[in-house]
Write a structure and sequence with these properties.
199 residues, Rossmann fold, seven-stranded mixed β-sheet
């Protein structure tokens, strides 16, 4: 049985941290996994900036409430889910993602969780498992699934390369140049047809 594993931010919804960076006027918060391959380093950097500016979960969730899926993303996901089971694998956090899942008709999501103090300060984070995207793909394969994976960032590459088929979507020029072996798409219609071709 085939199963599609999709990244969330940058593929189906805008990058949450970029939106929050724009809303707060703090350019440092616009760094994402497209820029920094080391996720722990990136999150420590983000938490330090949040603390420095006395920003917490409430402020981030207020920005997220105004975020909609990327144009065409819900239609793409609906069409794909008519043909195959889809699992969203994301390094985001459940406290961020649930309002966005509602707007995408609640696809299955595996992500991480935040540690939040009583005052709303984000004090840390809990990763679901080490190398969560790759670990999940390998676990699915170990119980008989054939995986097809797609994403846009450095932290997606391992799961993409581990699958039977893998795609890049709206990635950076650098990642595209570094991985010419991976088909790369910019348009949801072409992206959907690439999946149809391997299902």
């Amino acid at each position: 049985m085939k199963l599609v594993c999709l990244d969330l931010e940058g593929v189906l919804v805008p990058e949450i941290w970029i939106a929050f960076s724009e809303a707060t006027g703090i350019p440092e918060l616009s760094r994402t996994t497209r820029d920094e391959p080391d996720y722990d380093k990136l999150m420590r950097f983000r938490l330090d900036i949040l603390k420095e500016h006395s920003l917490g979960l409430k402020e981030i969730q207020e920005v997220i409430s105004g975020i909609d899926p990327l144009p065409g993303a819900k239609e793409f996901l609906d069409a794909l889910r008519e043909r195959v089971q889809v699992l969203i694998l994301s390094d985001t956090f459940e406290q961020f993602a649930m309002p966005l899942m509602k707007k995408l008709s609640y696809p299955t999501l595996f992500c991480n969780s935040l540690e939040v103090g009583e005052n709303g300060e984000i004090t840390g984070y809990h990763m679901r498992c080490e190398k969560s995207k790759l670990s999940t793909v390998k676990a699915l394969q170990s119980v008989g699934f054939t995986t097809i994976a797609a994403g846009d960032s450095y932290n997606d590459l391992a799961m993409i390369e581990a699958g039977e088929h893998g795609f890049l979507f709206r990635t950076t020029p650098q990642i595209r140049a570094d991985h010419p072996e991976l088909p790369a798409f910019e348009d949801f219609d072409e992206f959907l047809q690439a999946f149809y071709a391997v299902l």
